[in-house]
């Protein structure tokens, strides 16, 4: 999946994660990625050659799954510890770190990170004094 294919993710009506990708000549049908209700739009990023997708759970915690290129399949959902978030997460990979940002229940910005694909994630690190920006449609 991290093989340069254009991939699109969405939360379906049942609340689970689905995706589709361009196979070189056409878009695939939507493919359900299994159980695990999510309550936000997903955020995907390629980190160290691995496609990683983050979402907020129905319990307002952060979870993620990744595509295992060697096994040729998606991982199970991996929860990233306690701490409620009130927004969809946003992920970025830069300088060897995978970083995911979210808004706390108090409206401040927070993030977690891991280095070079390591399984160990940091605790939530709050960005003091920064209120997150909320998009409003008109």
Uncertain parts: none
Number of helices: 0
Number of domain units: 1
CATH architecture annotation name: 6 Propeller
What is the CATH H-level superfamily?
Answer: Fucose-specific lectin
> What's the SSE pattern?
EEEEEEEEEEEE
Assigned CATH class: Mainly Beta
Q: What proportion of the residues is helical, as a percent range?
A: under 10%
Biggest β-sheet strands, sense, barrel: 5 strands, antiparallel
Name the average pLDDT. Answer: 86
Give the tally of β-strands. Answer: 12
Structural class: mainly beta
Based on CA atoms alone, the radius of gyration comes out at 15 Å
Terminal residue distance:
36 Å
**Percent of residues in beta strands:** 35-45%
Shape: globular
CATH names the topology as Neuraminidase
Which characteristics define this entry?
138 residues, mainly beta, four-stranded antiparallel beta sheet, 0% helix, globular
Question: What can you see in these coordinates?
Answer:
- With 138 residues, this protein is mainly beta.
- The protein has no helices and twelve strands.
- It has one domain (7-131): Neuraminidase, CATH 2.120.10.70.
- The strands form three sheets. Strands 4, 5, 6, 7 and 8 form a five-stranded antiparallel beta sheet that branches. Strands 9-10-11-12 form a four-stranded antiparallel beta sheet, with no helix packed on it.
- It starts with 6 loop residues before the first strand and ends in a 7-residue tail after the last strand.
């Amino acid at each position: 999946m991290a093989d340069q294919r254009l991939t699109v993710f969405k939360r379906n009506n049942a609340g689970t994660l689905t995706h589709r990708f361009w196979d070189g000549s056409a878009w695939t049908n939507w493919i359900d990625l299994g159980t695990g209700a999510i309550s936000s739009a997903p955020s995907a990023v390629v980190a160290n050659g691995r496609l990683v997708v983050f979402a907020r759970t129905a319990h307002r915690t952060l979870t993620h799954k990744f595509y295992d290129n060697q096994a040729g399949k998606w991982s199970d959902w991996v929860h990233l510890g306690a701490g409620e978030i009130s927004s969809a997460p946003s992920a970025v990979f830069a300088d060897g770190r995978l970083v995911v940002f979210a808004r706390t229940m108090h409206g401040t910005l927070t993030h977690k990170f891991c280095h070079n694909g390591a399984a160990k994630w940091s605790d939530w690190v709050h960005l003091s004094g920064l209120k997150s920006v909320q998009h409003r449609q008109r």
